[in-house]
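Reminder to self: tokens first, then the designed residues, so the page reads top to bottom the way the pipeline ran.
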């Protein structure tokens, strides 16, 4: 999903004026979903975050976030 968002961004740079509104709409829809993605997870306690932490805010563990990002939906509002 994050890759598709970047693809739409690139297509918008060179899009013909008549298809720009459709691409803008698609990008807005994709971005509404990507904002809810939990991108990092603590290996120690499972705390999910959208940003990287050196120290987990939930369990206090240091360097417990894997360098690999996860793309799971956080369904909590």
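Designed residues (77 positions):
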């Amino acid at each position: 999903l994050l890759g598709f968002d970047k693809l739409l961004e690139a297509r918008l740079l060179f899009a013909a004026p008549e298809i720009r509104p459709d691409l803008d709409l698609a990008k807005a829809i994709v971005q509404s979903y990507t904002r809810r993605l939990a991108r990092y997870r603590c290996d120690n306690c499972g705390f999910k975050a959208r940003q990287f932490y050196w120290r987990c805010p939930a369990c206090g563990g240091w360097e417990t976030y894997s360098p690999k990002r996860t793309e799971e939906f956080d369904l909590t509002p």
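Residues 2-73 form one domain.
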